[in-house]
Amino acid sequence: MLNVLKFIVFLSLPITLCAAESKPNFVFLLVDDLGWGDFGCYGAEFYETPNIDKLANQGMLFSNGYAACTVCSPSRAAILSGCYPARLHLTDWITGHKRPYAKLSVPEWSTKLDPQRVLLPEALKQAGYATAFLGKWHLMPIGQPDFDEHYPTSHGFDVNIGGREWGQPKGPGRYFSPFGMPNLDDGETGDFLTDKLTDAAVDYLDQTSREQPFLMYFAYYTLHGPIMAPPELVAKYKTKAKDFSNEKDEFLNPARAGMVEKLDDSVGRIMTKLDELGIADNTVVILTGDNGGDHDKTTGGLRDFKAYSHEGGVREPFVVKWPGKTRAGSTCDVPVIGTDFYPTILDIAGLAPRRDQHLDGVSIVPLLTDSATTLNRDTLYWHYPHYHRTNPYGAIRDGDWKLIEFFEDGKLELYNLKEDPKETQNLASIQPEKTQELLRNLKKWRRSVDAQMMTDNPDHDPGIGKRKKKK
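== Arylsulfatase ==
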């Protein structure tokens, strides 16, 4: 009789609860302007990241994780779509830089996501997932008539907290209250943005986690400027900097260190909440960044930083915790990139791939489960037909080799990243055959994705650039 009662109780459970137990939840944490050397698990000593280091020790840390672009909007579009920015023609941050007298004209490019594409949150929603977006969106046009049609809630998210056209906090208090963001409580004077968004994330987990499987996509505004942190943390790191032996030549900015600590606190609070709710073992946690840090001493010794063509602008922390599947404390040196998240999350969820959508990503589940030590892919690509800190360029990584092509003058740079990860020796003239092989492959790829190219600028005036430099 007791077994019959147990069976009746089981049948009476809500269908959504059973679904939540059969499908994993996902917490995706995307950090803005995150340098490869910003976390302790990636070598930082001045910054303090015990919670993030603990997360890395519970999952897999990738040493060759990449963003799909060296600036934010294209990288974010690549994560959500599984497509290279070149394929999307969304190749610069919104709204980009203006260089009307530069040597080359910037091609037409998109400032919004194509509403016809089925993005990652839409694919999960169709499979019964609840979806929430928190933080920085920066994937919508500014001041256009269809402005309201491009919020996160128009692209598969049930909830949007804080996401709008901004690429950085622009509310009255910037990182401090008031914030001026959609659906985010301004709180009290002195409240810090990262804390308030984390409050909202924890509230979401409380309200949603037991109803159905979920994707919580938390795109932090931090560590983007303006660089500011609570006064007590700035004071803490000012004191620490005085006696700090900076052998690694780290960026000893007290305010940025405080921002990193607040980020780490946020990750810790989210992980604690998953434990409290009893869903940590059924929740996959992913942590990465959208492009390199905004300073050359945030990249763990890699060359250059945000917006540059070299490794410091595009190589990112990349951590995945998949309880019961990914070996705790494991590492992987196989190159992976932001386009891979879409097919990987579908694969983890037991859902069929959407090969007509995530055209450029591959599932990294074989790496996460140690069932393979390589992927059925050797090559990664970048396309940036815009002016920023660097001149326009394209790049290809094939195995250990990386080639950069600068569009203005055709200059080529070739590096062996295994032997020279800091890109100190250009081998283009020493290895001409390898250089031309990679250049042919890069051009072939651009044609295959219909990458928009630059053209000669009829208004080019080289004297303007020189005059600006003199000023």
